[in-house]
Every structure is written in C-alpha cells, then in structure tokens.
Amino acid sequence: MPPGCWTRSWRLGQKCPLGEIRYLFLDARYEKVRIGGVVRDAAVLSAIGIGPDARHRVLGVSVALSEAEVHWRAFLESLQARGLRGVEYVVSDDHSGLRAARRAVLGGVKWQPRAQVAQAVAHPEMPSAT
C-alpha cells in the first residue's frame, strides 16, 4: 500500500489499493440518516482486514438502505475491485443478505461465525465447537 494513502484517500475521496488480506471481518450497524429531509435508518456496512503483517486496517465503509444481498454484494465487489486478495477467513454474523453475498463473491473462503470468535477470545480455555 502506498505510504500515506489512507490519509490522502479520506481527504480526497479516493480509494486505496488493498492487496493481500488474510482475515476479513464484516459487520453492519444501523444509524439514523437524513435523506431528502426525512430521517430514516440506514445500514453502515464495514470491512476490517488483517494482512500478512498482522496489522488491522479499515478496508471500507458503505452506507446502504439495508443489509440486503444486493448491498453487501456491491460492497464486497468494490473491495475486490480495489485488489482484495488472499482472504483465508471471513468473520461475520450470519445475516441472510451477507451470507448470500459472501457465498457469491468469496465462495471458496472459510467462514467463521462472529459469536464463536468472541466466545473463543473471552474463554480461550474452552474447546471450539467446530
């Protein structure tokens, strides 16, 4: 990744190339937004990656009307268009829209439920269910 790319990209509205990301964490939260003078809920989709250097990076954020497959798919495809490659694991919840998009765009990548990862971090002495 070019030095200073993240700082410049936020300021100039550009997108940095991504490269190899081993672990991809996907999540969404809902926030109130004003669209055409009307306040409504919108999904804020986010992707955080861990590269081979073990550094965590915010890879992308997108605001969508919902967590429907069409929105997740467009978001994941935009990450791939920026050079996302080498993903070994995806960690996320099992929302139906995200699940369908993940399978369509990142079909061969292993998936780990977010709740199971949180449990393993909180209780490392417990054996994994999978």
SS-derived structural category: alpha/beta
At CATH's second level, what is the architecture?
2-Layer Sandwich
Q: Tell me the span between the first and last alpha carbons.
A: 35 Å
Report the CATH C-level class.
Alpha Beta
CATH homology superfamily: Ribonuclease H-like superfamily/Ribonuclease H
The coarse silhouette is globular
How many separate helices? 4
Alpha carbon gyration radius: 16 Å
Record the strand order, biggest sheet. 3-2-1-4-5
Outline the low-pLDDT stretches: none
Largest sheet: 5 strands, mixed
What name does CATH use for the topology?
A: Nucleotidyltransferase, domain 5
Strand proportion = 25-35%
Give the domain tally.
1
Percent range of helical residues: 25-40%
Number of strands: 5
Short note summarizing the structure:
With 130 residues, the chain is an alpha/beta fold.
In terms of topology, how is this protein built?
Layout: H1 5-12, E1 23-35, E2 38-50, E3 56-64, H2 69-81, E4 89-92, H3 96-105, E5 110-113, H4 114-122
Parallel strand pairs: 1-4, 4-5
Antiparallel strand pairs: 1-2, 2-3
Helix pairs in contact: 2-3
Q: How would you sum up this structure, described in words?
A:
The protein has helices at about 5-10, 70-80, 95-105, 115-120; strands at about 25-35, 40-50, 55-65, 90, 110-115. It has a single domain (about 15-120), classed as 2-Layer Sandwich (Nucleotidyltransferase, domain 5), CATH 3.30.420.10. The termini are far apart. The chain has 4 helices and 5 strands. The protein has a 5-stranded mixed β-sheet with strand order 3-2-1-4-5. Helix content is about 30%, strand content about 35%. Strand 4 (about 90), helix 3 (about 95-105) and strand 5 (about 110-115) form a beta-alpha-beta unit. Helix 2 (about 70-80) runs parallel beside helix 3 (about 95-105). With about 130 residues, it is α/β, with parallel strands linked by helices. The chain is globular, with a radius of gyration of 16 Å.
